[in-house]
Design a protein that fits this description.
The chain is of the alpha+beta class. It has 3 helices and 18 strands.
Amino acid sequence: MVRKKIIKIVNPDHRGFTLIELLVAMTAAMILIGALVLVFLSQSKMSASEEEMLSLQLNLRVATQRLSHALSHAGFGSSDSFQNGSSMTGNEPGSGAIDPPITRFVSHIGNGTSGTPNLTSLSPDSVIIVYGFRKIGTEVAEIISPNTVRLTGDLSPAPDPNTGNFRRYFSFFPNFAGNVFYELTNISSRTLTFSTSVDAPRGSSAYMVVPIRIQVANFVKENRLGQNIVIPVLQLKNFAYNSALGWIGAEHIEDLQIQYSIDGKTWFDSIDDSADLQRIRKMRFWVLGRSENQTGTQSQVFEITDLKANLGASDMCIVPPVDGACVIYRVGPFNDGHARMLSRGEVVLRNAS
């Protein structure tokens, strides 16, 4: 029997990697992985920044819509009564009695300023407006006597004749008396009795007429890490409710500036004369919003038109001052890492007398 000897020939070109080759390969892989990580982090940061900007735009859009709605309704259900000398008294939630009493549908104007040119020190404007903000019940079901009516549906918020609150003033639409309100003296179930005769037909709607303070306020909120943080919000404090916080119109609103016009052409930062308050026809506002989180980049410089007179040095004016006041004023840049945007609005007070 012949045995065959098998000879295995090893090809020297098929040997493993050397240490140097492994080091080179690992270095190249690390460089590639590092580049991919940098791209991922950059995309994540860009995505987060875009989310911040979208959230900021949404907050400003909501703030603008709610301000426009509230301001345009100022005087609804109240302007004629104020014109005839009526007033409203009661306690502002969390702040005690309103002093002086409310005698106009636009009143208690707080004329703040935008502080330094980079807005590091803010003193926003504030104002109290009065209007029939909510329908109470469904409609007038029965006229029991000249000053007593019965409503249908649920009465919420609950009317209250107590003189310490603002849930005792009502207006009816349609009616024959004009843009007037009536003061509640007694309530029994859905039957309301007022101090004067109610000139409203059966089937008309009843509205609670209340003051609402519009301002920028601080609000404590829990963040994603479970920590309590203080954020600035646009607050619409409705005096018909007991909460001192009121309604949050929009979050992360840093500044609010308001101007007033009697003729729609000349604008004032504040109107102190009571008669002129009754004659306000237009209001315009500026809302400055800030991103919730830092975006890691400097914010842009913003231009604010007709914001306030004499804000800072004249070299901050984009155009030459008019009568010593900046007509177009530049604020910023903001170097705290937060993005900011500005929203503007102008409304006609359609219920003014």
